[in-house]
Amino acid sequence: MAVDEHPHRSPGIHLPAFRRDRTASASAASAQLDTHTAAQAYALASLRILTGFVFLWAFLDKVLGLGYATASGRGWIDGGSPTKGFLSSVAVGPMESTFHSWAGQTWADWLFMLGLLAIGVAVMTGVALRPAAVAGTAMMALMWIAEWPPAKHLSNGASSMSTNPFADYHLIYAVALVAVAAAGAGATWGLGRPWARLPIVRDHTWLR
After folding, report:
1. What is the pTM of this model?
2. Burial call 83-100: b when 16+ CB within 10 Å, e when fewer
3. Phi and psi at residue 159, to the nearest 5°
4. Tens digits of per-residue pLDDT, 136-179?
5. I want to staple 123 with a disulfide (CB 3.0 to 4.6 A). Which of 39, 52, 109, 117 is the partner?
């Protein structure tokens, strides 16, 4: 009688195969994590560029009078004041009279315009995001106070047309600036990496 014998076979667990499965799972998890991280980086970079464009466009419109917020022929280059119209029309809030006194002042025009330009360029290019976030948040806070969303009525009793007592677009812009600065979003689609390698930036991290 013939008997088939397989003396070298073993029903035991094959550890090499188990290790291969574990390595494959780890690689898949790592790939998923990398994809998720990349998606976050692209989303923050998009937010950074769009937020920076808001500031840069406001500067260009007020300088040239492009016909959006600033009428054609009334730009800064034509002798118009970037702050007079907005600040003189403030009609509510605890700083109403203060804003009226600032309206049209040379120092206010220059400070406002240089702030818009510096914040817009810095945020769009991805450099000096931390200083830009501080300056932009301060600017947005002042503009929030000027519009004073908590008030339902203006000083003359008319409706303020406020739709929310706290959260408005100024607050959202400020949070966006802080978010992209905290996340170091200048490294993607920006000049954040070469900027961070500059000696002065390495020695003073608040400039990143």
Report:
1. 0.84
2. bebbbeebbbbebbeebe
3. -65, 135
4. 999 999 999 999 999 999 999 999 999 999 999 999 999 999 99
5. 52
